[in-house]
Structures are given as structure tokens and as C-alpha cells.
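Hi Y.,

Following your request, here is the sequence exactly as I used it, all 311 residues.
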Amino acid sequence: MELKDVVSVLDSYAPLHFAEKWDNVGLLLGPSGRSIVERVLLTNDLTEDVLDETIQKKADLIVSYHPPIFSAVKRLDANISWKDRLIVRCLEGRIAVYSPHTCWDVVPGGVNDWLSSAFNCSEIRPILKSSSHAGCANHNVTLEITSEVLSDTVNRLVFDELVSFLESFHCVSNVAAISEKSSCLRTNCNEKVLSEITRILSRSDDLSSRLCVVKLEKVLMFGPGRVCALKEPHSLEKVVEIIKHHLKLDRLRLAIGRGRDIKAPCVKNVAVCAGSGISILRGCVADIYLTGEMSHHDVIDSVSKIGRAHV
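Below is the corresponding structure, written out as C-alpha cells. Let me know if you'd prefer a different format.
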């Protein structure tokens, strides 16, 4: 596949506007000219060892969960900085680099949902739901268009207005090329957005006749973090064992609030946030927090206030 088509698929799974404002996501390095992708290497972090493996396996694209390019790059010197070496070596070897990071934390089926799948839950919902993450979606919308249709001035204006609206509502999933002469817009949206899509397209018979709407059997919830309501209360001891088994780890770091009994079945809900989760977890009502990392002072403050536990 061409690199642009692979990137289009990745973007459709987790649209880049779902990323946090401070994040750096998407295609970070792209070779010049036409680039064909035959092998993709997946990694949590792009290090020099990972790049060596990429070259050995003759992969054309690295999908790195964490972005290897984060701060502004003002100069590149492969002889001084290991991060500079990564960039230079990738460009020299025509290796593309893509990073989804917080996009994959927000979307249904992403990192936080995978972490939440460790538990037997009666309900799983995002910790935060806001207009910036589209809240929820209960319809799938598809609009297939041809270059011939868009050559009409009115159709082009209506289509551009639709794309602009969806981008402003942070819910457009993808506009992908099917062939040289046709493209397809796909999005998941709620009733309010669907009503506006219909209104915009009503000005063009050519476009409105191509609109396909399918009601989703399950409402998709978008947003950072997850709160998991357990079907039955667990002890802290059991929750820790569940997490260790799910993550295939022998040990975890556990902070326990004062007076908590690790054997008592007191855990009814678990708050989950991949990565450094304090900004999302702060203020969330749950019996235990599961996150990648948290500062010493944030842990002490949180467990001391209401006696919860942290993993």
C-alpha cells in the first residue's frame, strides 16, 4: 500500500483531532515522493534499538505510540543527540514514522478500553465527555463522492461546508480516496450532528442522494479515561491480581489509603487512564485509580484525602 493510504486507515481509526492540544500526533516523518509500505513495525517507544530492529526486518513504517518528535526541532546533528540520530537515520532509510498517542486513548476500542477489558463490568464510560471529544455516537454516516460530482460548483461548496462543520464538531473520522476518481467520507456521530449533516446536504441533490446512514447497535463513547463499574465488588488484593494477569506483570506499584483492608470486597468501581493520568483522574470518584505513572505528591495527596488506592 502507498504510505498515504496506510495513514488514511490509521487516521480513520483514531482521528487526529481527538488528541490532546499539547500532543504531537500523526505522520511525523514521511519520505519524499511516492512511498510504498510493505511492512509495519509497532512499538511503544521509538529507540535506537527499535530502529535497528526496523532496519533488520526491512519495515517501511514505524507506528510508535509515543511521539519520538515532541518539542520543536531547530537543528539536527546525528553525532550529538540520539533523538537527532533517530530522525536522520529514518530519513536516510526512507522509513516513515507515525504516532497516535492520545488519539488512541480517547476512541472506543483504544488503549483505555483495552485496559478496562481486564474487569468484568456492568458499565464502562469515559471519565470526561466534552464537545472536544464528540461525547458519544449512535450513527455511522458514509458519503461516497466522485470527482465529477465535485466538479460542480454548488456540490463543491456544500461538501466543503460539510467537512468544515464536522471538523469544528471534532467528529469527522476520515475522508479517504477510494480511487483516483472517487472518495469516501465516513464519520460516527450523534443525533444532533446527523441532523445538521442532513440539513447541509439538502442543498445538493447529488450529495444527499449518496448519503448512507446506519444506526449503530451500540452507542460509541468518546473521551479520555474510563470509569469501570464492576458487576460485583472485589477486594484490592483481587483487583491487583487481575491487573497483573492482564498486563502480564509480576509486580505493580500500589499505594493504599489509610485504614483500607486489602482483603475486604470494597472495590466497586475502577478509574483507568493510560499514561500519566493525574490531569484526567483528579476529582474522579472511584475506589481505585489505575494509571501508568503519577508523581509522589499526587499519590500521597489523593490517597490521603479519601483513602482510595492507586496502581
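Confidence is low (pLDDT under 50) at residues 130-134.

Thanks again,
Q.
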